Amino acid sequence: MSAPQTPSTPQTPSTPQTSSPKSGRGSGAVSLYAVFFLNGLVLASWAPRIPQVKEQLQLSDGQLGLALLGVALGSVPAMPTAGALVNRFGSRAVARSAVLVYAAAIALPGLARSLPELLVSLAVLGGAVGALDVAMNAHAVDLERSSGRTRISSFHALFSAGALAGALLGTLAAAGGVTPRAQFAATAVVSLLAAGVAAAALRPSAHQHEPGQKREPARARPSRFTPRLLLLSILGLCVLLIEGVVTDWGSVYLADSLDAEPGLAGAGYVAFALAMTVGRLSGDRAANRSGPVRVVRVGALLTAAGSVVTLATGQPVVAVVFFALVGLGIAASFPLVVSAASRLHTGSPGTAVATVSTTGYFAFLAGPPLVGFVAEHSSVRAALLILPVLAVATALLAPLLRVEGRAATTPRPAPPEWLCAGG
Q: Which position among 33, 86, 100, 352 has the lowest Cβ density within 10 Å, counted as fewest Cβ atoms?
């Protein structure tokens, strides 16, 4: 769920740099890219099928919102638990277990025959994805620190690429008449096999196993929770709330409000995910050229304009196009929030990042159910008016990204791992 991130300052003699021998493929970065990709694919394969699941179980908008709340209910206890486990056993061990459970859990929503069963199945899925999100991001931060290279953006680009693949999978399955149960079962089998290979290939980063180095505790909050960090957390909340609402309600809006066919309804999220992927791949370069404040502010205004047109039009095809504009506008924002948090003087960059990430991720999961409750008493279109409001708030809060701290300059980001021959 993020993009470009400014690296921390060069390591001092007290924290020796380990990039030379361990920053290449030996660090297990390629397998971690696969984990990020699977994370995006599995959850996104569910999103385009939400209208069919809603119809099969004869759920109202409010009941669907309650069911979607299951993802948040599962993730809330799972995320701090995963943080504690990462602190004790390391990010690799937790990521290995979480990705396997997560891959298998996608089959559960297809087996649900009632609202309570759907709620429980989504809670299990939410717990797995919450634990995986904490573990894989902690592992990515460790790998970035040990290599001395900017990598967070490319990891999250792989998440978006996985989300795009999952959205295409769900949309094609819906257009071809494949039932959600069959699609989710097939996705679980294939994802479980891929997750097993990726999990086995994960390796500890230099920060996790090198003698004499003290690994930073994976706490859920920083040593000093400053007002600036609170405001950055609110900014991250706005950004990921937009992403979560579009993910869970974009297809429902097209299907219910604009009477789009299942394939076209799913195409809205496909367009959104494709634009997110493109935006995240180019986010580092844009931020280096124009600065993070301008990138987030201009992107937020694009998101506001795209969401207004999407909600104002009665044409599904037009709405699909402008869903892409929403995704492009918001793509680079959250990683830049994470980067700014890492440069705050809060005692620990990693724990500041954890605070912003946890706050934003909770919004990503808890926001869509709230939209369902609003839609129950009005309409889906009215509930989605929160999108331009959040986009304007993001634009207003963008100056918070102008942080003077650990990273005075932003070096040219390194190319993605898959383009590198080695360290």
A: 100
